[in-house]
Amino acid sequence: MADSHQYTNHDVAEHLRLIANLKEIKGEGRFHYLAFRNAAEVLDALGEDINDIAAAGTLTDLPGVGKGVAEVIAQFLASGDSELAQKLRSQVPVSLVTLLEVEGLGPKKVARLWRELGIETLDELKAAAEAQKIRQLKGFGSKSEEKILRGIALLAQKQSGRTPLGVARPAVLGLIADLKAALPADALTAIEPAGSVRRWQETVGDLDILAITPRPDEVMAAFCSLPQVSETLWRGETKSRVRLKNGLECDLRAVAPTHWGTALQYFTGNKQHNIELRELALKQGWSLSEYDLEATGKGAAPAGEKRYFESEEALYAFLGLDWIPPEMREARGEIALARRHDLPRLVTVTDIRGELHGHSDWSDGKASIREMAEAAIARGYRYWLLSDHSIGLGVTGGVDAEKLARQRRIVDELNRGWADAGVDFRLLLGVELEILADGRLALPDDALAELDVVVASIHSSLRQDRETITQRALNAIANPHVDILGHPTSRLLGKRPPTEIDMERVLRACAETGTVLEINAHPARLDVNDIYARRAVELGCKIAINTDAHQPQHMDFIEYGIAVARRAWLRPEDIINTLPLDKMRQALK
DNA sequence: GCCGTTTTCGGCCCGACTGTTTTCAGTCG
Fold it and tell me: Which nucleotide lies nearest residue A208, CA to C1'?
């Protein structure tokens, strides 16, 4: 069993990307290597375990996976390698793939540096550039050498690569606010975040901002001289790129109102969604760009005829599609759904009626029970679960049966006060129950039985092997008092990878027992992610979206959790905390 | 290499910029 799960979906995707890169450097046709890269994307977005699919013999049912790719996947799962990769490695040094990461170097240039100068590694590349050997090559000059050296230096200081949305989104909103403040009102008609921030992707490569302006020059000048900017990387008439002091890069593009619909669509992406949309347009006789639709002459309209769109809705509608929310634009089948006018009604922040995971100063929270509950009331919530950490977690005091009994008296008294005042709100008492390293739960069943809702979570021994840590979660799920599994993979974005937990087994167990799966909305967690959330609902699980608030302001994080749910295509009826109190309680175990 | 509202063969997004060139290939998003 353990052997059959030796490699994850991500491992397979990386192997396919390696093959794509080697093929590209080798000079194989575009579509041959793109096929492997596309298949890698499909695997990364797959909620199911690829081992199960391979075992069932249905690999070629996956979109983008044909006979060739399926064979490579099967070999890799069995042995950790494939004949194709072995053959490619014998023809192209693997170390060349690293050179592709140098900005400005693509497959063609890397191949020439290797074939004509024998360069195989970053060190050799650096030495050749410093010795001014690269300029001897046709098509390369002194600037190429400078750029390569800059690229190598940048690569060395670049950290983990992608930035958590919780950092990127406030940064973009701050830039937009500052830009608005720095410009006269008539210089900016509209300005919006685009790219992966607009799609609420959990991590972001660089920032994209789109503006409508009658005077692009003025906007570009203001943008490049914002206080957050450390360096202008490029400045053109309608787009500029800067590096910020926090290391992020940000693009600003300015367009006329006529182009807003096509431009916003284009700069929102993702890339593959745009490609599919453009292919669809082509089939209808139109070529789609960020500026307009232009008739190709192969459709009804005469070649060269142009159509402009001042909104995304109008553009999608012209192509026969319902408007697709940005969170869904990931080329995961949303275009087909929009064509059939069958897009789900995605959950929104205003659907949420309460939360089922939060802390007070009884454990590691920063506010009193009353302050937290009043913050929930102020947000219009009808219920909120007090769930302080249980004993068994070293870093906090933790509540035990005796403390829970004391909390119960406080909760009852607070509830009586609100009832007397006519406030439609119920403070629920629960616990964030520690799942101990050996799989036991930190509190006995009779203590749990007294509580309204029990959230069980793993915080320790996160490096256990797949079987051990999965079994811990399964033990908790099997307990009749455990209602919710909290932040199931225990990851911290950019800081700590997910545990080895076998999510397919966990999700199936949750579905069978009626245990609710949490989408933890804290931007450092976003756990489970969109992929598992979607798989969970496919398997029949119920979901709760919780901010895990440790102070009142944390409740603002709910929009991040909602975004995860929307990226998972979830509707209000998939989420139990969109329900009124009595219905929500019925939905628990 | 994959795929099917034109198709089991013949397609496979689009534009902008850079650096090096005298008209464009390579890279990027």
Answer: B29
